[in-house]
Amino acid sequence: MQISPSILASDFANLQSELEAVGNADWAHVDVMDAHFVPNLTLGLPVVEALARVSPIPLDCHLMIDDPDRWAPGYAEAGAGSVTFHVEAARDPVSLARAIRSEGARAAFAVKPGTDFAPYEDLLPEVDMVLVMTVEPGFGGQSFMADQMAKVRQVRSAVARHGGDVWIQVDGGVSADTIGQCAEAGADVFVAGSAVYGADRAADAVEELRELARRHG
Ligand SMILES: O=C(CO)[C@H](O)[C@H](O)COP(=O)(O)O
Ligand SMILES: [Fe+2]
């Protein structure tokens, strides 16, 4: 059970100390948005390169961008430990996942709430993780979509059928109130922005979420 706090909910004026505040987490989730794939703009490659230099934990980059085939391997090269692209935006997901892995990072694909997983099941041997979005991508602080738990169960069964160690990540509205159902459905990597950075002590929130996930997993 791994926790990946989303720095989207942190203080962008103090990113290094915000990363250090969640040094007990497994990953730091970095939301890259390009104002095309989603209607919001956050940060890009130069900032990720700088964060990779100072972060005490590996970066988990979630690319909400058009044309990931062109850009995603660069994030692996910049030092991200895991790079997630959206299948809705990828032209050749197999080659893309291989390019990310060949740069030494874990490769993952994400599915939006309205995207079926079944057409992408054959990609499982090419990736290290599947991200099931539990909000419409674009903004932090949205309400958790419990109807996506059926998809998490579907991915968990597909992973069991295929064998191999593919992690299942959930992202969006994950909190102390919702993490239990995610773990029960089969998720094992949990992104949390507001629930971690909105807490009095971010590190305590990370421990609490991990404990709740373990209890329900
Ligand atoms: O990908 C994302 C939004 O597109 C974020 O990672 C996600 O929303 C995390 O924020 P919160 O936990 O506040 O929902
Ligand atoms: Fe994200």
Automatic annotation (TrEMBL):
Catalyzes the reversible epimerization of D-ribulose 5-phosphate to D-xylulose 5-phosphate. This is Ribulose-phosphate 3-epimerase. Belongs to the ribulose-phosphate 3-epimerase family. One of its GO terms (molecular function) is D-ribulose-phosphate 3-epimerase activity. Keywords: Carbohydrate metabolism, Cobalt, Isomerase, Manganese, Metal-binding, Zinc. Its cofactor is Mn(2+); Co(2+); Zn(2+); Fe(2+). A divalent metal cation binds at residues 29, 31, 62, 171. Substrate binds at residues 6, 62, 138-141, 171-173, 193-194. The active site is at residues 31, 171. Pathway: Carbohydrate degradation. Its EC number is 5.1.3.1. Binds 1 divalent metal cation per subunit. GO terms for biological process: pentose catabolic process; pentose-phosphate shunt. It catalyses: D-ribulose 5-phosphate = D-xylulose 5-phosphate.
